[in-house]
Design brief:
With 272 residues, the protein is of the alpha/beta class. The protein is built from 11 helices and 8 strands. It binds 3-methyl-2-oxobutanoic acid. The site of 3-methyl-2-oxobutanoic acid (KIV) has 11 residues, from strand 6. Pathway: Cofactor biosynthesis; (R)-pantothenate biosynthesis; (R)-pantoate from 3-methyl-2-oxobutanoate: step 1/2.
Amino acid sequence: MGYLSTDKKKITTKTFAEMKQAGEKVTMLTAYDFTTAGIIDAAGIDSILIGDSASNVMAGNADTLPITVDQMIYHARSVARAVNHAMVVCDMPFGSYQISREEALRNACRMMKETGVDALKLEGGVEMIDTIKALIDAGIPVHGHLGLTPQSVNKFGGYGIRAKEEAEAEKLISDAIALDKAGCFAIVLEKVPAKIAAEVTRQVKAVTIGIGAGNGCDGQVLVYADAMGMTQGFKPKFLRHFAQVGAEITKGVQAYVDAVKTGDYPNIEESY
Ligand code: KIV
């Protein structure tokens, strides 16, 4: 079975805004390598995120903090090379934008120049507004990220649901409005009550992309390895497995081992 072919036009920030206006849901999955990104793009996804979740999924780290700008650039370049249709967004990793506006701008320009992605994503609310504005003023589309922001896992003390209490919910809504006013074209809302995410979605022009944030967002994102059933022992309430790729790989590897061990592979037709 080959890839699905797609003659769809490239998705841009303008397309995102049009989709929100038209009430069309925006789909996003992560990818970190050329081969997977090519399959996901050809299957018709609207947007691909080179998430700093590469730190967990690709490198096996316990959180997203260790991944570096150089490592994100490597992943992002590999993904961008594969994609024709989807909007490609890359995470700015922990430490690359928190120190100063100047350093954030320097890292952001480098990431744009060296990868070919379409936009950058960073975590945080009003405390990041000056940085977000500096990037947008430099011509870089910025995707915000509120609610559970995994780069702050140590501050939160875990990966629990955010904005359950009224004060935090109010802060999330005002952060989203600030990001929207600053010009973010989209905002991830991670692990927040569906009612709060729907309220944010109503109040902002930016496209809201939910993960564990209910059905009232403008779109949804999942880590592809989670959604495709490749990760072991991770099944939060919001996660649905849309395929069992892990089990398929296991079957394929077992068939390969069996064929080699029994001398069935390679056969005459598979030999020179
Ligand atoms: O890094 C990531 O994969 C993300 C998504 C889960 C939104 O930020």
